[in-house]
Each structure stands twice: as C-alpha cells, then as structure tokens.
Write a structure and sequence with these properties.
The structure holds three protein chains of three kinds.
Chain A (H helix, E strand, L loop, with lengths): L2 H11 L1 H19 L10 E2 L5 H4 L1 E2 L6 H5 L3 H32 L3 H16 L2 H12 L4 H8 L12 H28 L3 H9 L4 H25 L7 H8 L6 H4 L2 H8 L6 H29 L7
Antiparallel strand pairs in A: 1-2
Helix pairs in contact in A: 5-9, 5-11, 6-9, 7-12, 9-11
Chain B lengths: L2 H15 L8 H16 L1 H9 L9 E7 L7 H16 L1 E7 L5 H10 L6 E4 L5 H6 L10 H4 L1 H6 L2 H6 L1 E2 L2 E2 L2 E2 L9 E5 H6 L8 H13 L11 H12 L2 E2 L6 E3 L8 E3 L4 H15 L14 H6 L5 E4 L1 H13 L6 E5 L1 H4 L11 E3 L7 H13 L1 H9 L7 E2 L5 E3 L28 E2 L5 H9 L19 H19 L6 H15 L1 H19 L3
Parallel strand pairs in B: 1-2, 1-3, 15-16
Antiparallel strand pairs in B: 3-13, 4-5, 6-13, 7-11, 7-12, 8-9, 9-10, 14-15
Helix pairs in contact in B: 17-18, 20-21
Chain C lengths: L1 H11 L4 H38 L3 H7 L11 H6 L3 H34 L6 H13 L4 H11 L7 H4 L6 H12 L3 H9 L4 H12 L1 H17 L2 H6 L8 H16 L15 H23 L6 H7 L1
Helix pairs in contact in C: 2-15, 5-9, 5-12, 6-9, 9-12, 10-11, 12-15, 14-15
Family (chain A): Belongs to the binding-protein-dependent transport system permease family.
Protein name (chain A): Sugar ABC transporter permease
InterPro entries (chain A): ABC_transporter_permease (IPR051393), MetI-like (IPR000515), MetI-like_sf (IPR035906)
C-alpha cells in the first residue's frame, strides 16, 4: 500500500464505512471546527467595527491578568487536584456500584437502587447548593446534631478544611448514577460463558469479580479516565459557584480557574480575556492528553483514545 | 460528563455578568454602515416626504423591536390591537420580541453583535449603553430625530439628550420620567415601637435598633444574604460616591467630587470595618452570611429578621406584599438620603430606546416610537395593557385601577412588560391604592434633589483591564469578609487587603479613574 | 483472559470449595445490599427533601429549612407553576417531540460512527477519533457559534436549533466505540466471508448485539435533550416553541436578576419566585424523565446473544 493507488484502493475498500461516518464528520466541521476560529479573540483588543479579524492584534496582552496576580499556580493546582479526585474517586465508586448491581440477585432491589442512584443527576447545582447550606450553616442540620450531642458547634463557613471533602463528596454523589450506567453496560457486554466456566471451576464470587469483571472493565476505565484528562484544567463552575458562592474566606482551598476568571471579569467583561482564559485551559488539557495518549499507545494500542 | 454543557457553562456564566463586547466581522458592519448613510444621507429627498406624510402614502413596513425581560400572557392580544392602530396610522406592523430575563445580557449583546435585523431595542446605562455606543452598536440618531420624531425631539429636556450623547452623537431616546432610587432600609417598625427605640436618623439609632432586636427579641437583625445590606449603609453613611462601576474607588463626598480616593485606604473605611467586626461579633448577622442563598427580606416575612436593603419603589413592593399576605407586622422605611440630606435622580439614560445599526428602517422605527411615547392611546395600551381588562379608568383622568373591576389578577396578571424605555411623565397614570409612602417620599425628595454628576462618567477600562481584573479579584476575596467583620483579626486582615490591592495595581487604576473623572468634570464645569 | 480463569480454577479445585463459595456469596450479598442501600438512601434523601419542600408552606421553608415531612402541606407552588397549564402542556409536547426525534436520530448516527471507529481494519479510525475528540478541547466561544447558527444556518426560532446541537457528542461516540469494540471480531469476519456488506453487518449483527450500549447512549441522549434549556434560551423566540426546561428555567430567572445590582433599577412589580417554587419547578421538570430510566433498564440484559451468535 504505497502512493496514490494505495489511498484510492483504501478509500474504495472502506467506501461504505466512510459514508457511514460522513454525517458525523460534517457535523463536527460545521458545529465545532468552524466556530473555533473564535479563539482568535484571545489575541485581539476587540472593537465593534473591526469584528473578529478587523480588531487590533495585541499578542499575549489578554493573558496577562492570569499571570499578574500570582495566584495562578494555586488555582491550577486546585483545579487539577479536584479534577483528579473527581475522576478517580468517581470512577471507582461507579465501578463498585456497577459490580454489585450486576451480581446481586434481588431484581426489584437492583432496579430500585439503580433508579435512586440516578436522582442526584437531576438536581440542579442551585438546589444542591441550597441543600449544602442547610446542612452546614450556623443553624444547619450538622450543627444541630452536634449541639444535641453536647458538642461545640462548628463554623463550617469560616474554615477551609471541610470543604475539600464536601465538594468532592457532592461531585461524586451527583455523577454516580450516570457513570454507573456506563460500567453496567460494559459488564453486560461480558459474555456469560466466562462466568459459567469460572463457576464450574469453582471460583468464588470475589474471584470471579477480581479475575473476570475487573480486568474486562479495564479498557472502559482507562477510556473514561483518558477522556476526562483533556478537561483537567476546566472546573465544574456551577458546582463550586453554587456551593461556595462568594465566600472569600474559603477561596484558598476552593478556588478554581473558572471561578477566578468569573470573578475577575465581573466588573468589566472582556471577550479577549475570557477567551484567553479558556485557551489557557484548553492548551494544557491538550498537551496533557497528547502525552498520556502517546504513552498508552506505546504500551497498549487498544486502550488509547486515538 | 456532558462536556459540551460544561464548556458552555463557563462561557455563559462569564457572559451573563457583563457584556460581551464583540462583533461578527466586517460584513455586518459594512451593511450597517450602509444603512446609516442611507438613513442620514437620504434624508433630503425621498424619505423626508415619508415623514411629512399624508401627501404620499407610506410604504408598508414590518419592524422588529426588542425589549429586555419577559413577555406577558396577553401580549398577542395587545400586539394585535397595537398593530391595527399602527397599520392604519403609519402603515407599519411591529414584531415585538423579548430577551426573557435569564441571561438577558448575553442575549442582548449577541443580538447586537450578530447583526440581526432589529429596528429598535431597549437601551440603558445598566445594559452597557455607553460602552456599546462607543463601540458603534447603535445608529447615530442626531439627524433623524427632528425629522422623524419631532414631538419627542421637542419634549425631551436638553440635559436628557446630553445624557445619551456619546462622542457628539445621540445614540438613544431617553425616557422622560424622573425617578429617585436611593438606598434605604425596610425594617420592623412595630418592633421599634414595642422596644421604645428612637426613629432612625443616623448610625447610632440603627445600631441601637439592631442591638435591641438581637438582645431583646433574640432575632438576628440582618439575616440571610448580608453583604449588600451593609455595603449600602457604608457608602451612604460615609457619602462615598463610587465612580466607574467599581466598589473601590470613590469621591469622598458629593461636594468634593475631585477628591477621589481608594476607599479601603481611607481612615473612614478602617473605622468602619472595626465597627463591623463589633457588629458581627454581637451577632447582628450570621457567620455564614456570605454563603447564604436567602434574601434578608424573606426572613423579615417569617419573623426571623428585621432589616432589608431596598430602594423606595421596591420597598413599596415589599410592604404591599407583606400586606397582601396578611403578615402580622408593621414595616417602616428609612431612606439613607436623610444622612446627608440630598438625593440624585436616576439617569435619563437608565431607561431608553435605541436603534441598532442593523436596522433597515430606522426612520419608520422612530416614527413609531414618537407615536408610542406621545399619543396617550398608544402609550396606555403598551404601558398598562388593554383598558377594561388590565386596567380601568380611575376617579380622574390621571389615575387608573389595576386590574379592571371584575378581573381576577390570578387569571390576568398585571401588564408589566419592560416599558420603561418610552415612559413619558405627562402620560404616566397613577395607580389607586398603592403604598402611600412612595408619594410622600417623592415630595420629600423633590426639594433636595441634586443632579447625578457621577453616574455619567463613563469609564473605558481597556487600558487598565488587567489591573481592574486583579483588583476585583482581591476585593472579592478579602474585601467582602472584611466588610462583614468575619475575620478573626481586623488589623491583620486590613493590612493584607491593602497590600494585595497595591500589588494588584490599584494605584494605577486610581490614576486612570482620576484622569477620566477630572476630564468629565472639566467638561461639565464641575469643581 | 480465559487462561487466567483456568489457572485459577485449577488452583481452587479442592473439595469443600462449594461451601467456601457459599460463604463468600453470603458475604458478598451482605456487603452488596448494605452498600447499595446506603448509597440509595444518600441519593434519595436530598431528592425527597426537595419534593417535600415543594409541598411546604413558603414561610416554613425559610424559617425551618428542609424537612422530611412538612408541618403544613401547601400546593401554592404547584398552583403557580400550573397557572398557565396550556403553556406547560405545550412545552411538554415540544420537549417530548424534540427528545424523541433527537434521540433516535442521534443514536443512529452515533452507533454508525461508533461502529466504524471500532473496526480495526478501518485505517483512518485513529485520525477520525482524534478529529472528534479534539472538539472537546477547544471551543471558539459563544459569539461565532451564535452567528453560525443564526446567520449562516438560519436556525433562529427553529426546532432544528433544539435538535441539532446536542445530536452528536464526542463523549457518546467514543463510548459507543468502546462498547462495540467488545463484540468479538470473529463475528464481523465470518459475516464478511458470507459476503455481507459493511452496512448490513452493522444493521443485522452489530446493532442487535449492542443493546446495553445503545440503551446507555440512548439514555444519555434523551437526558441531554430533556435537560437542555440553553439552546432554547439562545435561539427560540416564540413562546409556543419553548421546551419545558426553558419555560421552567424562565420562571426562576427573575430571582437571579433581582439579586444583581441592576435589580435596584427594576420596577417593583417584578415578583421574585419563591423558594418552594424553585423546588416545584425541579419536580415538574424531572418527574417524567425519571420514569424513563426503569424503562431503559430492560435493555441491560446480559450479553447472551453474543454466545448465541457464536454458537
């Protein structure tokens, strides 16, 4: 397969396959790639009459606000660490739930549990925020319980320590049902033959899980982790914004790039600066995913994202 | 998960706050430019005859108008009636559209930047009117107004035209309905009487009230979201006049407009935050008040709060609501104007109508606006709704009853579209049975009214946008907790706050704000 | 894999094995039931509080916060949500229509794309996967997108503006690809030898074999459409075309406006929605879609068919 004839033969051979994926390609060109020219805003001083390409080119000027304040390192660290916690803890919890759901025998119980686990997905962060406030405020549920136990009440909103756990907890909680479905579907795709063979050979249920289920879930696990890594610099704005709000005292531990940018631009929104911040996040996600994907491709081609 | 959603979330939220100044590239603007020249240049011959009307019949035109906010349930019926009249009088129909309130700023800016064909849109100083005008979003109406909106051109005061003039061009038609919206507190008047406390006059009387409420009534005086409630008191009591829409740089009083300082660096601020630390420690508000999700007013309604920041008309709304819900309490209102005994009316440019550059029929659009503002039949219909349904004539020609007798407000809610842009005082009707305090306040305000010399200072922050972003960040993180006395050590926190502000470049920002303000004061001859 | 299983089986093939297995199964069940019950409760309680809250008296919510059972039951919030019932019903039908049309079309295109990308003999699969994934990394922002949709595609106020944008996502396609990868290659191979075309293999063999995957993606698509208010917010201007989520979102929005500084300028007659209304809105908006999930569950059947085809 070399030269022109090779490509043509290749195209002819996979003509049907190409046709089948053509709508998808067109879709992404139209809805994603064409609007991507907007990243150029990050390098211009925008003015109405010039528009996107007529405005003055200012180089890296719009990125300055990110670097000037000296908190970028802390923000980046927070964003990345939170995301890593969300990704790994989230996936592990989802796998555990999916494994039990797949193996337990009580049908009604399983169905009910599965449905209930999906409920948090439907609650907006606004409501979750209100709920969290009700739990941890001065007169909230937690402090009432502490009082009843004769303990001192605790000012959650003046201390940073508990919030790392609260935030991670609610993030995992909210995505649990959604992610469990994926793993459950992956488990369902495992042929029964494996388990039957194992049973005949006398393997216990834990052994079956360790030696059949988990290894076969590995590709899905790696795939989901990989997919999420590209967005490692992008935080879930709503989660942080609704739970922490404008409580400056908690920012050291709870501020992420997205909330920082949001606050920085409240007085004077600037499209150039907004786009610049997004580009910073994208660029690092892009670099990271390229490296990780490259390594995975080298070790096991099947697991790589592309 | 849902990556697209996530991606949007930030973008949306970012843009929700303030405007996206943006454009869509050369082509639209060229088109707009062309319209502009058509409109102004073509005045002399064919279109001029359109205005002087009658001789030649007007060409049939369909206009698109946009208002902010939500539509009304009966909008279709109102529009049908309006279009019937418009078609007869001006051979025009209008398609009236609304942004809805959610993310209205994003949508408002997208409408302008994408160059959608719009012939008239609500404009306001609080919807970035000055910024957008400067960037060329609207059509310069200077030449068109005398020709196509002659009545309006005649009855809008000269100063008001001045407030919508940007760089020599008039970019909007302001409303003519002077209003006063100073800050103030609504509070539990019945408790004040019960506890035998003096009426509010100054900070001490307010402090005494809060103290009594806390110690004798065992109620947190300002419950829920607290920051704004304290911040407005701070600004009003000390007479700080914030300049350029940020919370940190202000003139030290109305009478010393050129004495512009960094607020947190002043002695007044230092004294204030020390007092606030005391107040916070005494429990005048909760420790978690920066994260609360509930308006302070909601707690008044449940008997768990006593004070809530409002302007006079929203205070009226609050008092009416308390009455309507038959809550057993008496609510008083104290406007902060009494601290320094003056009040500034809202800017005429805070409610206006403008013509975007994308308009194909600016002349006709102005003709419709002229009619709408000045013809009471048009005005009443679009401002109050259908007579006999949404409203009925009151005891005299100047008053109305809402709703019309026999109409259930639950079925036919009051007609409340964002009609502020075309309001004209002589055509305004007064509602019978509203809160009478509002009229009394108006009487109180009129003799002490002074012109707003700070609001119109338009700040183009572009040269210092990096500093502004950094400073705002510091303010959010350190300034807000300090203002509410939520930190353990005021002196240490104040020092950190000041240091961080300096590092963020607040002095550069101050220099810039001073420059711009002085330029404006020179222009207007203000000492 | 199977060698691993065999080794293990050999090592474990002792007498008394069965008893041990039973013990372990009991342990497994105890852990499983306890854990899942706990998790379910943690997921249920907040939702229950919201539902209970929506039936609570407004002033009670403010003064007492969330309660498992309200002291005084009130339907006020639902009365105001349903104050214009025609509009709610119409919004329901718009949402249902868009959700069904979008999900069906989406699942068709996603499964085709997933299938093509899962074919190991398709040389461009990595290139195209990258091409798709890349769109999750970079975006041009709102403005170019808005201009594309309104000016170039002319989708302002069109149902297509609701259907098209959520139709395909990199996430769904890549998930689909991974589901389809787990179908043994030998099936495709043998069908090819029998002379079946690529589309026919996809349609006759792959689709029936990937029901859990299809159900998952179908569910995600349906959820996406059901929860989408953003596209309506941007593009729909006629009230009769509002989908449910947007309509309800709109009910809540005046509160947000009132909390900003601009609120000071607004007329007093903009009434903020109440706390209970927020919750009632959440309940009304999510109610029907929650019922979808148990329905989807029937497609999560162990992949026996794989064995059937193989044999």
């Amino acid at each position: 397969m070399s030269g022109k004839s090779g490509i043509i033969r290749e195209l002819r051979q996979s003509k049907t396959l190409l046709l089948m994926i053509a709508p998808t390609i067109v879709f992404f060109i139209v809805f994603s790639y064409i609007p991507m020219i907007g990243v150029y805003y990050a390098f211009t001083k925008f003015d109405f009459d010039g528009g996107l390409f007529g405005s003055q080119f200012v180089g890296m000027e719009n990125f300055k606000f990110l670097f000037n304040t000296g908190v970028l390192w802390n923000l980046t660290k927070n964003t990345v660490l939170y995301n890593l916690a969300f990704i790994f803890l989230g996936n592990i919890m989802q796998i555990i739930c999916a494994v039990f759901l797949a193996q337990l025998s009580g049908k009604l119980f399983k169905k009910t549990a599965q449905s209930l686990m999906f409920l948090p997905y439907f609650l907006s962060w606004v409501l979750v925020g209100a709920f969290v406030y009700n739990l941890f405020s001065d007169l909230g549920v937690v402090n009432s319980v502490l009082k009843q136990l004769g303990l001192h009440s605790y000012d959650f909103y003046l201390h940073t320590a508990p919030w790392k756990f609260i935030i991670v907890f609610f993030s995992v909680w909210k995505g649990l049902g959604y992610g469990t479905v994926i793993y459950l579907a992956a488990i369902m795709a495992i042929s029964d033959e494996y388990y039957e063979a194992a049973k005949i050979d006398g393997a216990t249920i834990f052994q079956q899980i360790r030696n059949i289920t988990l290894p076969l879930l590995k590709p899905t696990f790696i795939l989901l982790i990989l997919f999420s890594l590209g967005g490692i610099m992008k935080g879930q704005f709503d989660l942080f914004y609704q739970i922490i709000g404008s409580n400056g005292m908690l920012y050291d531990a709870t501020d992420i790039i997205d909330t920082f940018v949001f606050r920085s631009l409240t007085v004077n929104f600037d499209i150039g600066m907004g786009t610049a911040a997004g580009l910073y996040q994208s660029f690092f996600g892009f670099a990271l995913i390229m490296i990780v994907n490259f390594i995975i491709r080298k070790t096991n081609k099947d697991y790589s994202l592309f | 998960m849902g990556k697209i959603k996530k991606r949007w979330t930030l973008l949306v939220s970012l843009s929700m706050l303030a405007s996206l100044l943006s454009g869509c590239g050369g082509s639209n603007n060229n088109a707009a430019e062309k319209n502009n020249s058509d409109a102004s240049g073509g005045n002399a011959s064919p279109s001029a005859s359109e205005a002087t009307a009658s001789k030649e019949p007007l060409k049939k035109v369909k206009l698109t108008w946009y208002l902010v906010g939500d539509t009304h349930k009966d909008m279709d019926k109102v529009m049908a009636e309006w279009n019937k009249m418009l078609e007869k009088d001006l051979n025009t129909t209008v398609d009236l559209k609304f942004t809805t309130w959610n993310d209205w700023q994003t949508k408002y800016n997208l409408l302008l930047t994408s160059g959608e064909k719009i012939d008239m849109i609500f404009a306001s100083s609080w919807a970035d009117f000055y910024k957008l005008s400067k960037q060329g979003a609207f059509l310069d109406l200077t030449k068109l107004l005398p020709e196509y909106a002659p009545v309006t051109w005649g009855n809008v005061p000269k100063d008001d035209w001045g407030s919508v003039t940007v760089g020599g061009g008039i970019y909007a038609v302001p409303n003519t309905n002077p209003e006063y919206t100073p800050s103030g507190y609504v509070y539990r008047e019945d408790w004040r009487k019960e506890l035998g406390l003096p009426e509010f006059t100054d900070l001490n009387s307010i402090e005494a009230y809060m103290d009594a409420v806390k110690t004798k009534k065992h109620v947190t005086p300002i419950n829920g979201l607290v920051y704004d409630n304290v911040n407005v008191l701070f600004k009003s009591w000390n007479d700080f006049q914030m300049i350029g829409g940020n919370e940190l740089i202000a003139a030290t009083s109305y009478d010393t407009p050129r004495d512009i300082q960094i607020v947190p660096f002043t002695d007044k601020y230092e004294a204030w935050v020390k007092k606030m630390k005391e107040w916070a420690d005494k429990g005048y508000w909760n420790k978690n008040s920066l994260s609360s999700k509930q308006e302070a007013g909601d707690f008044i309604k449940t008997g768990q709060g006593a004070i809530y920041w409002r302007n006079p008309s929203s205070a009226g709304g609050f008092i009416n609501e308390v009455k309507a819900k038959k809550l057993n309490m008496e609510i008083g209102y104290f406007p902060f104007t009494r601290f320094h005994n003056y009040v500034m009316p809202t800017l005429p440019s805070s409610n206006a109508m403008a013509v975007p550059k994308s308009s194909e029929n600016p002349e006709r659009s102005l003709m419709v606006l002229d009619k709408l503002r000045n013809d009471p039949v048009y005005f009443d219909l679009m401002t109050y709704g259908i007579e006999g349904k949404h409203w009925a004539k009151g005891k005299d020609a100047k008053t109305i009853v809402i709703p019309a007798p026999g109409v259930d407000l639950n079925e036919t809610p009051r007609f409340d579209i964002a009609s502020w842009g075309w309001r004209y005082e002589p055509n305004m009707l007064k509602e019978e049975g509203g809160w009478d305090g509002l009229d009394k306040l108006k009487e109180e305000f009129k003799p002490i009214s002074k012109p707003d010399i700070f609001g119109p200072i338009y700040m183009d922050y572009d040269p210092v946008k990096t500093e502004l972003a950094a400073v705002n960040q510091v303010f959010e993180q350190y300034g807000k907790p300090l203002m509410l006395g939520l930190i353990p050590d005021v002196d240490a926190s104040l020092k950190t706050y000041r240091d961080k502000l300096k590092k963020a470049g607040i002095e550069k920002l101050l220099t810039y704000v001073k420059e711009q303000s002085n330029q404006y004061f020179d222009e207007k001859g203000i000492k | 894999m199977s060698t691993q299983v065999k080794q293990l089986a050999k090592a474990d093939a002792f007498k008394g094995n069965r008893i041990k297995q039973d013990k372990e199964t009991i342990a497994f069940n105890i852990i499983g039931y306890t854990l899942l019950t706990l998790v379910s409760l943690i997921c249920l309680i907040p939702f229950w509080l919201i539902v209970a809250g929506s039936f609570t008296d407004e002033l009670e919510i403010i003064s007492k916060g969330f309660q498992l059972f309200p002291d005084t039951v009130s339907f006020e919030a639902y009365k105001s949500v349903f104050s214009t019932p025609e509009q709610i019903y119409r919004a329901y039908s718009v949402t249902i229509g868009v959700t069904i049309a979008g999900s069906l079309l989406g699942i068709f295109l996603t499964s085709m794309a997933g299938y093509v990308l899962s074919r190991k003999d398709f040389a461009m699969r990595n290139g195209i996967s990258f091409f798709i994934y890349f769109t999750t990394l970079f975006s041009g922002g709102l403005i170019p997108w808005y201009i594309l949709m309104t000016k170039n595609l002319g989708l302002k106020d069109s149902y297509w503006a609701l259907i098209l944008p959520p139709l395909l996502s990199a996430w769904n396609i890549i998930l689909m690809r991974s589901f389809m990868k787990s179908i043994p290659e030998s099936i495709v191979e043998s069908a090819k030898i029998d002379g079946a075309g690529d589309f026919k293999i996809y349609q006759r063999l792959i689709l029936p074999l990937s029901t859990p995957g299809l159900a998952t993606i179908g569910l995600f698509l349906a959820l996406g459409y059901w929860n989408d208010w953003f596209n309506a917010n941007m593009f729909i201007t006629t009230d009769s075309k509002y989908p449910l989520q947007f309509l309800l979102y709109k009910i809540l929005s005046s509160a947000a406006v009132l909390q900003t500084n601009n609120g000071a300028y607004l007329a007093a007659n903009v009434v903020p929605p109440t706390e209970t209304l927020k919750m009632a809105v959440a309940v009304v908006a999510t109610g029907p879609i929650i019922l979808l999930y148990p329905f989807v569950q029937r497609y999560f059947v162990k992949g026996l068919t794989v064995g059937a085809v193989k044999g």
